[in-house]
Design goal:
Strand content: under 5%
Shape: extended
Radius of gyration: 20 Å
Number of domains: 2
Number of helices: 6
């Protein structure tokens, strides 16, 4: 988390990270059973809904932070390909496998769903602003 060089903000960010780590049971939740508090369980359900994945029993970001090396490889290749306009296979330095193609399809679907969601949120905000403007509200 950027803190702008402010030691107070840095310390607060570190303290928050420690609290989150403890509450979620990161990074080694497999060493002990973890029953999530209601607020974290709701967050895990929300992440599962948005990502179309199985609901996490612990931190929903664990699968990203501790991802299989192949997941990291394909995800980085996609990001570099998008930024540098170089084909994914060239970024990987190998031909694409069936698993690679399935992953690329899933990434594209997730990206489309995220854009659709973002568009819906923007439209809702515009509608709210229009209603507020008609009422004379700020």
């Amino acid at each position: 988390m950027p803190t702008g060089g402010d030691p107070f903000r840095r310390d607060a960010a570190i303290e928050n990270a420690k609290e989150c780590k403890e509450r979620w049971g990161c990074p080694n939740r497999t060493g002990r059973p973890l029953e999530l508090p209601p607020d974290l369980a709701a967050e895990a359900r929300h992440v599962a809904t948005v990502t179309g994945t199985v609901e996490a029993a612990g931190c929903p970001l664990e699968c990203i932070t501790y991802a299989d090396p192949w997941v990291v490889e394909i995800t980085k290749a996609v990001a570099l390909a998008a930024d540098l306009h170089i084909p994914v296979a060239e970024q990987l330095g190998r031909d694409l496998t069936t698993a690679d193609l399935q992953a690329l399809s899933a990434l594209k679907s997730a990206q489309g769903a995220a854009w659709k969601s973002d568009d819906k949120i923007r439209e809702q905000k515009r509608d709210q602003e229009r209603r507020n403007a008609r009422r004379g509200a700020p």
